[in-house]
Structure formats: C-alpha cells, structure tokens
Amino acid sequence: MTPHHTTWFPIPEHSDFSIYNLPFGIFSTPDRTPRVGIAIGEHIIDLADLAQSGLWDNIAPASVFEQNTLNAFIRLGKKTTSAVRLKVQELLCDPESPLKSVMDGRFFVAQSEATMYLPVEIGDYTDFYSSIEHATNVGKMFRDPANALLPNWRHLPVGYHGRASSIVVSGTPIRRPHGQVLPKGAEVPVFQASARLDFELEMAFIIGKDTPMGATIATADAEEYIFGMVLFNDWSARDIQAWEYVPLGPFLGKNFGSSVSPWVVTLDALEPFRVPGPTQEPQPLPYLQCDRPANYDIALEVSITPENSTETVVCRSNFKYMYWNMPQQLAHHTVNGCNVRVGDLMASGTISGSTEDSFGSMLELAWQGTKPLPMSDGTERVFIRDLDTVTMRGHAEKDGIRVGFGEVTGKVLGV
C-alpha cells in the first residue's frame, strides 16, 4: 500500500498533480528558456534551477534539466529519474524544507504563466489496436457482425508504424485534412476535405531505455523500458482511411496529426492503480504471457466544445479495459529483434468499454453517423466539425490518492 504523504505546499482538492504524482514535462516562461519541470498542484518546479541550487547531492547533472526535451534525463536510467522524483517529494513534504522560504520565487512557476512543449523528441511512433471492444465494434460495422474480429486479433497485439513528425503537444490546432474519398455508390474517388474527422481516445507510453538490433524485451522486463505515460488523441479521417487502408492499413487518414498531453506520468506514480486485465482466450503464446497484473485503473473522458459554447462530455472510458497490456505490446514489438530508442512512443489504440457511452471514438459513439450526439448548445455531432475543440482527461484515484494526466486538447481548423 502506498504510504500517505503530507505536504506543506498548497494543492487544490482533486488536483491531478498531487504529491503522489510529480510528473515530468518541458516548459518555458518569458524569462526562462524551455527546460525540465515537475508539476505540483497549479505550479511547476523548475528542475534546472533546483539542480543548480545545491539542494540535492548531484543526483543528476544540472545540464540534463536545461534541455528542451526529456530524452537526456530519461537516458540516465530509472534509478536516477526515480531518485529525482523522490527527492522532490521529500523536499515538498519536509516541514523544514529550504524550498518553503522561496515558494513564490526562484523555483516555482504558475502553470498559467508557462508554455508547455512536446515532452520528448519522438524518433519512432507505433499505434496498437488493443481494445477488444473497439476492434469488435469496427468489425461489426465494416465486416461480418458475426465474425467481427480477424483471426489474428486474439493471438497478438495488432499495430502499425505511424508518423512521429506530426505528433504535437496539447493546445496545438489541427487542420482538417484533404485526401481521396470514395463517395457512397461511386466507383471512382474524389479529392476533398475529410467530412468524417474523428478523435481516438488513447494513452501512450514512452520508451525509457535503448535496445540494440536483434535484442528482445520479455514481458517480465518490459516495465524497465517504460519511462511513463501520456494521454493521446490519434486524430482520424474516417472517409480517407476507409478508401486507402486496404491492403496496407492507415496512411493519410492518420498521419496528419496526433496530440499528446504535456506531462509524463511515471510508472512509479501509477503503481498503486495496477489491476488485472481481461481474461485472454485463447491463452497467448509463451512470449506474451505475463506473471503479474499489468493493466491500470485510469478513468478517462472526452468532451467536445463547439466554438463560443460550453463543453459536452461524450465518452467515459477506462484504461483497464485494454485486452493487450503494455508489456505484451512491447514484447511483441521487439520479438523479431526490432530495436527501440529512448523517446519512442507506443500508443494503445482506441480505448472503448462495453457500454455505448464508453466508446472511444465518434465512429462508435454515433455508430457511423446513425446516432447523432446532442451538444450542450442544441446542435448535434456525428463527427468533429470545424472550430470544435476536443479535450481528453484522465486520472487514477484510490484510497485518497489521486494521480492525473491533466488534459490534451486540440481545436480543429477548417480548410
């Protein structure tokens, strides 16, 4: 059981960024260049300044906190990154902490005054397809409802390699994409703006350790290679995707943009929320079997906010629903000898639950446009309109301990 900590630092009730969380990110202010920080309550602790202050004994070189990505810091290894997080936690709990006298000064920045950046340099990005509810729903729509899952789905974590260059931090607008679309009843495609722009509610983990080509990662060792997690919106143009995806899968329907939350929550912080996943039938091959629970109870929600209006929550789901867990995804990814690198991002695939209000995409929520969703302003949605803002949030809570991810937002700009 996680010990309870008492901090002298003012943290609003129900804050995602509690003393138990302490996620890492990259921020700047008008007088601070982009650098590494830790979120606490409504503030950010400037680790670059803290490391130069002498308040800890060379846990990590100050230079790694002066970088504009977390990659150099992550590369120091979990022993070091965990020690930094625990030292900050200690400083925030010690009633005699030297930080207490400078709470409004050198080391603390209000989140409202900071600009956030993509937390890591992402060399490669893989998107999985690991929710059985989502895969079943899509199979019912586009294939045989009686045989919705393809024969391989229950045997391996299906995935594809995506485009890292178009992954952007929360708050970055997304331009509605153009591409080829095959109109209903037509025999030849037309070129147009996507009329079926969608979100996909996902989470993603960030690789924290390199492997050489030819090496594999066992499920039992996988968490040593996972630094932490973020929220992930894998924007999708369903009409472009439907025409292009046979036989090689997603391309222009996906690579125009994906959005991530700016704070990386460590696996250490998520440990209290570990839960068993769904029963896997048939039993996976030996290299995919896990010796302990590897899912996490993280409540997720998605809202849509039309321009100059209020938001409407359209989905409530949970990361614990994932059929294939992160160690299984990473083990399968590397079983052929594929190497991974610090900063690589692995997304879960759409996270849908078993109830209609827990489906993780508009494709499912509005069931291919047949069940419009009412908005708070009286309009309806079957897909995302221009100037809509999509917001995803996620948090875990148990025994008075809350660890959250903040949010990832993106506003759709028209053509």
Summary keywords:
Fumarylacetoacetate hydrolase, domain 2; five-stranded antiparallel β-sheet; SH3 type barrels
What does this structure look like?
With 415 residues, the protein is an alpha+beta fold. It has 2 domains: 24-116, Roll (SH3 type barrels); 125-413, Fumarylacetoacetase-like, C-terminal domain (Fumarylacetoacetate hydrolase, domain 2, Alpha-Beta Complex), CATH 3.90.850. Helix content is 15%, strand content 28%. The chain contains 8 helices and 26 strands. The chain has helices at residues 47-52, 71-74, 78-93, 132-142, 238-244, 267-270, 326-334, 362-365, and strands spanning 24-29, 32-40, 43-46, 108-110, 115-116, 125-128, 159-161, 167-169, 174-175, 178-181, 190-193, 197-198, 201-207, 226-233, 236-237, 258-260, 265-266, 274-275, 295-296, 299-305, 312-318, 345-347, 373-374, 380-381, 389-398, 401-413. The strands form 7 sheets. Strands 6, 7, 8, 13, 14, 16, 17 and 22 form an 8-stranded mixed beta sheet that branches. Strands 4-3-2-1-5 form a 5-stranded antiparallel beta sheet. The longest helix is centred in the first third of the chain and has 16 residues, at 78-93. It is globular, with a radius of gyration of 22 Å. The relative contact order is 0.18. The model has no long low-confidence stretch (mean pLDDT 96).
